[in-house]
Amino acid sequence: MQIVLGIFLISVFLPMGSSLECEVCTGQGSSCTGEMKTCEDGQDTCAVILAANSLAGEPTLTVTKACESSYVCNQPPTYMNLGRGRYVQSSVACCVGDLCKTAYPKFPPVMSKPNGKQCPACYSFSLNGCETEMVDCVGPENYCLDIVEKVTYGKFVIDLTMKGCVTEALCATKDGEVASPGGHTDIVKATCTLASAAA
Predict the structure, then answer these.
(1) What are the residue boundaries of the structural domains of the chain, listed by start?
(2) What b/e string do you get for 185-195 counting C-beta neighbours within 10 Å, with b at 16 or more?
(3) What is the mean pLDDT of residues 142-170?
(4) What gap in Å lies between CA 148 and CA 44, rounded to an integer?
(5) Which of 68, 126, 141, 166 meets the CB 3.0–4.6 Å disulfide criterion with 137?
(6) Per-residue pLDDT reduced to its tens digit, 34-78
(7) 149-163 burial, b for 16+ CB within 10 Å, e for fewer?
(8) What angle do CA 121, 125, 128 make, to 5 degrees?
């Protein structure tokens, strides 16, 4: 899934004509190590992306380090509530040079208080949809997202349908292919609407 959203501040500006290099890796847990990569045009910062989810039943933490465009640095952490205790959240820290040794994304405290809004929610390993249930949105989850995607990682291909309450930043997700370290995601459909008032 396209999860390159979050908070941080770029405190070092690159001189004109400089080539930015970032460590590139993906790993389970909160740290990973990889090779340095020269970033492409338009990628003006390094990013550390922390993602947490409970889609497999148990909470899982994944970290990704990559070259990114600095527009991702000013976006807040993202949340997606898929019902039945399933969630996805992500946060980004941006950095350049030595600051990347200590850059680490931060998640706000877990929110559980309903905000008075609801969305249909479900999760399925299929491109053909899934049976929904209404879930209560919490905190800043004011929108409903309906997303269908095909994730390719190496030789593995995973079809996904996800619906649920999300924060506004996730509504920027658009149809099309998104590159990620080690693979890519083809977003077949992404529709976002305002959450309805709870019945």
Answers:
(1) 21-197
(2) bebeebebeeb
(3) 89
(4) 30
(5) 141
(6) 999 999 888 999 999 999 988 888 889 999 999 998 888 888 888
(7) bebeeeeeeeebbbb
(8) 75
